[in-house]
Amino acid sequence: MLKDVAANAGKIGDAIVSASNSVYTTLHDDLHWSGAAKNAAEDRAVREQREMRAVATAYYDLESASESLHGAIEYSVGQIKQLVQLHEVEPVVIGNDQAWTVHGMTDENEAANLSSSLISFATTIAEADAQWKPKIQEAIDEIRRMAPISNNIDINAGNTSLSPERAAAIEYANRWALSRNPDYEDLGDADCTNFVSQCLRAGGFKDEGDGGVPQMHRDDNGRWYYDDDTAKVDKSYTWGGAPNLHEYLLRDNPQSGTPSGTEVQTGGITTTTASADPLALSKAGLKPGDIVQYELNDGANAGTINHTAIYVGQKPVTMPNGETVMADVVDYHSKENKQVPWTLQQGSGSSFPLTYHMIKVNYPGD
Question: Which residue intervals define the domain Putative amidase in the entry (predicted)?
């Protein structure tokens, strides 16, 4: 257990250092720009690199303390297990007390020697625990103060560099990633784009057009709306259809206040184990609140854009190969997923090979 804690803490520390170095190098060395914006970005990169390394140091402290405690008690724990297994045979019973009293052994001297050995090993364990447990707790407290400790702890929208609109979209995404908002129609296994449209609306975008005569204009990819004031919900295909939303976001001359965006990068991932940059979204310039669409190899409309997810931030994650890395993560529906690697490599292999489309969304507050 302690060995596993130490190993995982070390991996997370390595991932954080790698991510901080990558961001710094990209801003400082790889981008050819100049002026006040460059200086401000580099200053921020230095600050964030320093902060991320402080987080990594806390993980390394946890790794070191856990390894030290494991090393200090491993032999004694093994000896206690061995002695108990060897001697606790009916009618002999070893008491669960500080004296490790041995009952039912005919040779009293042997019983006393066994108790003495067990006490000695237990004392070694207690002394090591007293020495290293506070250091482990100190490292854990520092990690909790500065960063999440596991994949199960949420990231949130408290990033002050994001507009309030982006923050609202992310907050909605994280709120409803693992369930369905009853205020909207549930589209079952085809709910992914419906969910992302809800996030966009929560992020301040206004509907464009409406059905007029119910469902008459829902196939118009120049409209984006959800109308539940009619007897039957009337929504545009762009609201719930992945390829339709893609066309709508990239349209020419978008109306002010309605969703629009720019496709900044496309590419492919061949398998669940293929090499794919876990931080590709942020490196491409996407911010939390932006969108990734996919051409999955399975499901409805395989081979066309048939899946939509929303980028919500970064966190350490454990990949299918067991490696812990810092990754850009997304929320999406259909099969509910919250804050999972954007590469989707934690999912079914039947979706691969896939093609991705990174879309930078023009939020009202940007």
Answer: 165-348
Instruction: Decide if 155 contacts 314 (C-beta within 8 A).
Output: yes
46: tokens are 């230095």
Q: From residue 313, how far is each of 9, 190, 288, 292, 316 by CA, in Å?
A: 21, 24, 5, 13, 11
- How far apart CA 246 and CA 292 sit, in angstroms, is 10
CA distance 21 to 30: 12
* Single-letter amino acid code for the residue at 249: L
Query: Rounded to an integer, what is the distance from CA 43 to the centroid of its chain?
Result: 27
The letter for the amino acid at 325 is: V
Rg (CA), the chain: 28
The answer, yes or no, to whether the previous bond of 91 is cis (omega within 30 of 0) is yes
Cβ-contact 174, 339 below 8 angstroms: yes
Q: In whole angstroms, what is the distance from residue 267 CA to residue 62 CA?
A: 38
Q: What is the pLDDT of residues 127-171, one digit of tens each?
A: 998 999 898 888 887 776 765 434 444 555 545 578 999 999 999
Per-residue pLDDT tens over the stretch 192-212 = 999 999 999 999 999 998 655
pLDDT at 18: 74
Report CA-CA distances (Å) from 166 to 71, 206, 269. Answer: 47, 14, 28
**Which tokens belong to 228?**
């539940």
- 189 secondary structure, DSSP code: G
CA angle 48, 342, 308 (to 5 degrees): 125
Instruction: Please state whether the predicted TM-score (pTM) of the whole model is above 0.70.
Output: no
Q: In angstroms, rounded to a whole number, what is the distance separating the alpha carbons of residues 279 and 328?
A: 5
The burial class, CB within 10 Å (0-12 / 13-18 / 19+), for 258 is: buried
- Residue type for 17, please? V
pLDDT single digits (tens) 228-262:
776 678 899 999 999 999 999 999 999 999 999 99
Q: 202: helix, coil or strand?
A: helix
Phi, psi values for residue 195, rounded to 5°: -65, -45
Residue type, 321: N
Please report, for the chain, the start and end positions of each structural domain, with discontinuous segments joined by +: 1-146, 164-362
Nearest to 221 by CA among 203, 239, 197: 239
Half-sphere exposure (Cβ direction) of 180: Cα atoms closer than 13 Å: 15
